[in-house]
Amino acid sequence: MQKSTNSDTSVETLSSTRQGTGAVQMRIKNANSHHDRLSQSKSMILTDVGKVTEPISRHRRNHSQHVLKDVIPPLEQLMVEKEGYLQKAKIADGGKKLRKNWSTSWIVLSSRKIEFYKESKQQALSNMKTGNKPESVDLCGAHIEWAKEKSSRKNVFQITTVSGNEFLLQSDIDFIILDWFHAIKNAIDRLPKDPSSSPRNMELFKIQRSSSTELLSHYDSDIKEQKPEHRKSLMFRLHHSASDTSDKNRVKSRLKKFITRRPSLKTLQEKGLIKDQIFGSHLHAVCERENSTVPRFVKQCIEAVEKRGLDVDGIYRVSGNLATIQKLRFIVNQEEKLNLDDSQWEDIHVVTGALKMFFRELPEPLFPYSFFERFLEAIKKQDNNTRIETMKSLVQKLPPPNRDTMKVLFGHLTKIVAKASKNLMSTQSLGIVFGPTLLRAENESGNMAIHMVYQNQIAELMLSEYNKIFSSEED
């Protein structure tokens, strides 16, 4: 076997003499030659004066990723200053006037832009299809002003961007829209008026595909041009945005002032700034405002379910999308015109989920606290006829809003049971769903498990003996 030697490599031949195979193993050691040291160039970037980072991968395709990661903070890390639901209408796109259509949007304000989502940002991102991004508004150079003449609604302001887009934002609640107006105005005031004159660190965000050598040479020339006393501050700005700290302090300061100065809920209600809401209000209060004994929202939900949900498998048992239910709840509380035939409420489980939420959030349940023990005593009676007559007597003694709403609800649920062969919802199933929702003790004790059994049984009896229990009441 012939061995080759040179200044770069040495060869060691190890032969196994004890084995008859005559196998030869070769191991080549690479010397740290001058040629190899040149071929293995290492890219380094300065993170502070007199300090260098660890060498990164020598593969060219990784250079820009490492440098951009270390030097340029990603766009996603822009701080969210404020978010919440508002009414939005886009009235111009690139200078072209659009028809005004109001819609409820989840608004997210960051230090440089506003994003519009159809639902909360977290839910929207999880449901977002590939390539489908939320509508975004660059606030750099934008203008904000109150726009009373643009809409018959109150509390409307307009945002106009340098690209010619125009948006109207609105809320019926005065302090909410005022807080949004000042938050957006402050964000605009902090940005340069001319987008082309944005700070140098904003230009970094535009660099997406530059190699590490290009990026380093760009900053090397910048550092050479700077005076020595400015170099350290320049490198510091590459890693830390000084505005981040001031933005956080500004937000904290505003939040503290708002909390200490905000009026009480009672004061806002007395001044008419906050209206009594549908969800979370007492049943009698809702009925008084609507001059009815059955809430309008309950009637709307029942009508929608009977129109397109009687045959749906698991109706009232299957949960709808919680974010969409909350959106529906928000619209109802804002006393906006509700159309449950709209495509956004196409999933009937959203409607049933909102109806159940309405009854769950009543401060006092549909079966009043003062009647709880009496209904429990009635269901415990051994004789079925006696149970029915006692239930009937108790129902007749209920306040009109409770009695009439109960009659409408259980009358609706009997139609669900009539379609049990298709929707698979029996009397027992509906009793389990509605028992704890409609009937509960004011002070829960250790008898919760026993109470739950009776709650379900009471709801079941109301359904199975509906005609007898409500027979004496006028339709």
Structural features, described:
The protein is built from 20 helices and twelve strands. The chain has 475 residues and is an alpha+beta fold. The strands form three sheets. Strands 5, 6, 7, 8, 9, 10, 11 and 12 form an eight-stranded antiparallel β-sheet that branches. Helix 2 packs across helix 6 (212-225), helix 11 (296-308) runs parallel beside helix 16 and helix 18 crosses helix 19. The radius of gyration is 35 Å and the shape is elongated.
Helical content band:
40-55%
Q: How large, in whole angstroms, is the Cα Rg?
A: 35 Å
Number of strands: 12
Overall structural class, as computed from helix and strand content, comes to: alpha+beta
Average residue pLDDT: 75
The termini sit apart by 110 Å
Report strand %: 5-15%
User: What best-fitting shape do the alpha-carbon axes yield?
Assistant: elongated
Low-confidence stretches: 1-77, 198-227
Q: Major sheet: size, sense and barrel closure?
A: 8 strands, antiparallel
Count up the helices.
20
Summarize the structure.
By secondary structure, this protein is of the alpha+beta class.
Please give the structural blueprint.
Blueprint: E1 9-15, E2 24-30, H1 34-39, E3 46-48, E4 51-52, H2 60-71, E5 80-93, E6 96-97, E7 103-110, E8 113-117, H3 121-127, E9 135-138, E10 143-146, E11 156-160, E12 166-170, H4 174-190, H5 200-203, H6 212-225, H7 228-239, H8 242-261, H9 265-270, H10 283-290, H11 296-308, H12 322-333, H13 348-360, H14 372-379, H15 384-397, H16 400-418, H17 420-423, H18 427-438, H19 448-464, H20 466-469
Antiparallel strand pairs: 1-2, 3-4, 5-6, 5-7, 5-12, 7-8, 8-9, 10-11, 11-12
